[in-house]
Design a protein that fits this description.
The structure holds 2 protein chains of 2 kinds. Chain A is α/β, with parallel strands linked by helices. Chain A is built from 8 helices and 10 strands. In chain B, α5 packs across α6, α6 packs across α8 and α8 packs antiparallel against α10. Classes of the chains: A alpha/beta, B mainly alpha. The complex binds adenosine-5'-triphosphate (ATP) and magnesium ion (MG).
Chain lengths: ~280, ~260
């Protein structure tokens, strides 16, 4: 393949010194991230793990070019990001399908947009069919979203992203609304897809097991304002079992790091607001 | 016992009940004529049998075709004009909070004025003929379309817009691929309301110095003392209105998959 070698381009996605806050003019702002950096190598899957409200979704919006950080910046292939990048695919927490389009049309949505790479109609159709085959939904092409189960809908959302053949996947808790059994299946599917296409991915999650099962690397976000409080490399081969001894050791360390961050850091956000 | 037999059974029961309702209406109508006949010798011409007889004659002699087509043309032209005017205004009002607050008072005020009150002014401006009718019917239909469109835009799922943005959609793509299909259901609801209002207002409007249309035909039968034909026109107006509404409902069901609203 003609992919650039990792040596020339050490990171496909690089976020450096991201700071982010929300607030109204004049009022004290809610500082969400203070200084977060992340390097994503080609084909690597990084899980960004953190408690609810730490700023994971906000971070992912920044990585996707949907939100401008207060400080720092994002580079894709060394070029600084100014808006959504055509080779970066995004999957949200809810499937976000368009109810007036069939499954097939939903998967193809956006492929013909002006700022997307130009594809002829035949290639577009093939891409859509391939992506649907990848998530194993060929039998439901003409179905509307209201006729799909939650797991099927999330698979359609994944296929919509895959049809654009992204080099980098950004996933915001994509399976958190699913039941445990379906979630396991989806995790396996995602693992197979990223391995097959050598897709790099940032997987945002608050589920420690999900991070342990899927990630090559885990970046732990914590504290108030949020920052990186720990990093682990997981080298176990796939498929993994979350209760394996090695993974259990990492889990204990993660829980410990979160506990330390809470004790050392400033009081939780709710408390701060109550005092102010 | 299979799944399809249940809705089939339900819908045939519904049709049965609605036929029964029409039958009751017919009985009440006959009774009314019977009672009225005691004090008013002319009442016989208004009876169901005379009415349907006249209706059959008029239809067979093709005498209503021109009037019906003219009336339907007026409905369609005014509806299209109202859509052309109302949808862009509705989209603008629905997407801008400032525009919404600054127009809502004025819209509610204008909406509550019976369009017929504009009649003298419409005639003064547009003269006599089709133009004032189009004007009156258009301002009748434009309010439900504006209000439903803007409500539709306001209820658009913000995540659909985020999705479009993540695909680097242009403004035009956001409008045509998200906003328009996402509000179509509301627009069609507005169309259905608008058709009902146009149809009701059409008849008095057509009594305004024009020489065709169902409203004109009613005045004409009155002048000719052809009361059974007058009743026939009334029945036809009801039937056409019913069909137009059913058509609007069908369009909604056909174009708007479940879950869009
Ligand atoms: N659009 C916004 N305007 C103002 N504040 C926001 C906005 N989005 C997020 N925040 C705030 O930023 C903080 C982080 O939110 P974010 O959604 O990024 O967290 P998260 O880690 O994704 O949480 P969760 O796991 O619950 O999804 C929260 O305190 C939230 O109130
Ligand atoms: Mg989130």
């Amino acid at each position: 393949m003609s992919k650039p070698t990792p040596m020339l381009h050490p990171a496909v996605l690089e976020a450096s010194h991201i700071a982010l806050s929300y607030g109204h003019a004049g009022r004290a702002t809610n500082v969400v991230l203070r200084d977060f950096s992340l390097q994503l190598k080609a084909g690597e899957v990084v899980a960004v793990l953190g408690p609810s409200g730490v700023g994971k979704s906000s971070l992912l919006r920044v990585l996707a070019g949907l939100q401008t950080p207060d400080n720092g910046g994002v580079r894709v292939h060394g070029e600084s990001l100014k808006g959504p990048h055509p080779r970066v695919g995004l999957v949200f927490q809810d499937p976000c399908l368009l109810p007036w389009l069939t499954l097939e049309e939903n998967v193809g949505f956006g492929l013909d947009f002006r700022h997307q790479p130009v594809l002829d109609a035949k290639t577009r159709r093939e891409r859509v069919r391939d992506a649907i085959a990848e998530v194993d939904l060929q039998h439901a092409l003409g179905h509307y979203p209201s006729e799909l189960s939650g797991g099927m809908a999330q698979r359609v959302a994944l296929a919509r992203c895959l049809a654009r053949q992204p080099e980098i996947l950004l996933l915001d808790e994509p399976f958190s609304a699913l039941d445990e059994i379906t979630r396991g299946d989806m995790q396996t599917l995602l693992q197979q897809i990223t391995a097959r296409h050598k897709t790099a991915a940032v997987l945002v999650t608050h589920d420690i097991d999900e991070a342990l099962v899927l990630a090559d690397r885990i970046a732990l976000l914590g504290g108030q304002p949020g920052g990186l409080i720990g990093e682990w490399r997981i080298e176990q081969p796939h498929p993994r079992d979350a209760v394996a001894a090695e993974l259990t050791r990492v889990r204990v360390e993660i829980v410990q790091a979160l506990r330390d961050a809470r004790r050392a850091g400033s009081p939780p956000a709710e408390l701060q607001r109550a005092v102010a | 016992m299979n799944a399809t037999s249940i809705p089939l059974h339900r819908s045939s029961a519904r049709i049965g009940l609605s036929l029964f309702g029409l039958f009751v209406l017919l009985v009440l109508w006959s009774l009314g004529i019977h009672v009225l006949g005691k004090s008013m010798p002319l009442a016989g011409a208004l009876s169901p049998s005379d009415t349907f007889h006249s209706l059959y004659d008029l239809l067979a002699r093709n005498e209503l075709t021109r009037h019906t087509l003219t009336s339907l043309k007026r409905v369609m032209v005014s509806l299209l004009a109202a859509l052309a005017l109302g949808v862009p205004i509705g989209v603008a009002v629905g997407s801008s909070r400032a525009l919404d607050s600054s127009t809502s008072g004025a819209f509610q005020f204008l909406r509550m004025i019976s369009p017929l009150s504009w009649m003298p002014i419409a005639v003064m401006i547009f003269g006599i003929g089709d133009a004032p009718i189009y004007f009156l019917l258009t301002i009748t239909a434009v309010w439900p379309i504006i209000l439903n469109t803007s409500a539709g835009v306001r209820q658009l799922n913000p995540r659909w817009l985020l999705l479009a943005r993540s695909l680097s959609a242009t403004r035009g793509e956001i409008l045509w691929r998200i906003v328009v299909p996402g509000t179509l259901g509301h627009v069609l609801t507005g169309v259905r309301v608008a058709i009902g209002m146009i149809w009701i207002l059409l008849i008095p409007c057509e009594m305004l110095g024009v020489s065709s249309g169902l409203g004109y035909f009613i005045l004409d039968t009155r002048d000719r003392l052809a009361y059974s034909e007058l009743m026939a026109a009334i029945v036809l107006i009801g039937a056409l209105g019913f069909l137009l509404d059913a058509l609007a409902q069908r369009l909604h069901r056909h174009w708007v998959p479940a879950g869009t609203d």
